[in-house]
């Protein structure tokens, strides 16, 4: 919806409308409370508030839905982890594969999940704060133009903060991909030895390229058509962190090219036991196709 321009317009359109006594009283109450000079000015500001809320409430609700889904997904992942730690994986519904977790793995996983939720929650808070500030500022300055200018200033300031948070979130996702690559090298001493012989510049070049490949393959592996989506049966309608699952599928395919599809799927489900096996299998197939001709060798 197009909003009125902030400057450069004259008040040349007069509007006549019928209102109930209670509506007029509510406007006057708001006007007196906020020391607005006239009823007409109060109506103009309230109309602007309505436009702001109408345009911005949708994205805020989407962000809220995303945060709630992520909280539910992480809760389910922690629940599955605890069932495995207690040796009750077979009693889960549906049964989970056996898995031994070290204390370090549990802490790393919990910190990773909590960091993601903190960042997403901060973005949600700032979205709501931006909406609140822009509405509230309409009652503060003495002129409507001043109110619009202050609202826009606050919006830009908060958007800049959100951009910074999202950048940090992207950095966190890249760190997750780096962790998968590091685990792969630690599991293969001969590969770790070759990596350590590289110069610092070559190490950085390899890791940047490897992380980029994982990200690109994961993006393709985690994209489903409506027909493919219909094949996914989320267990008990639980949400999943598609990004993390796709990252692991991509890393497995890129780092263990000789493994079978079943090996890749088993590796992913060992880390994300509540993920839908059908979804994981499709991700693996897509990742294999996307990984063709991607160079994961060390710089020479």
Describe the structure.
The protein is mostly helical and 300 residues long. The chain has helices at 21-33, 39-85, 103-136, 144-186, 189-196, 200-221, 226-231, 242-255, 261-271, 277-290. The protein has two domains: 23-172; 188-290, no CATH class. Helix content is 71%, strand content 0%. The longest helix is centred in the N-terminal third of the chain and has 47 residues, at 39-85. Mean pLDDT is 78; it is low at 235-240.
From the structure above, extract its key features.
single chain, mainly alpha, 2 domains, 10 helices, 71% helix
Q: Which helices and strands, and how do they pair?
A:
Elements: H1 21-33, H2 39-85, H3 103-136, H4 144-186, H5 189-196, H6 200-221, H7 226-231, H8 242-255, H9 261-271, H10 277-290
Q: Choose one word for the global shape.
A: elongated
Q: What fraction of the residues are assigned to beta strands by DSSP?
A: under 5%
Helix content: over 70%
- Low-pLDDT stretches: 235-240
Average pLDDT figure: 78
Q: Report the structural category.
A: mainly alpha
Distance between termini? 55 Å
- How many β-strands, per DSSP? 0
Number of domains: 2
Major beta-sheet overview: none
Instruction: Characterize the quaternary organization of these chains.
Output: single chain
**What is the count of helical runs?**
10
Compressed to H and E, one letter per element, the order equals HHHHHHHHHH
Rg is 26 Å
